[in-house]
Amino acid sequence: MVHTLSTRTSMELLDSALVQIFAGNLKRLRKKARLSQEELALRCGLDRTYISGCERGIRNPSIVSVEKIAEALNVPAKEFFENGR
Amino acid sequence: MVHTLSTRTSMELLDSALVQIFAGNLKRLRKKARLSQEELALRCGLDRTYISGCERGIRNPSIVSVEKIAEALNVPAKEFFENGR
DNA sequence: CTGTGACTTTCAGTCCGTC
DNA sequence: CGACGGACTGAAAGTCACA
Question: Domain named HTH cro/C1-type: which ranges (chains A, B) (predicted)?
Answer without folding.
Answer: 26-80
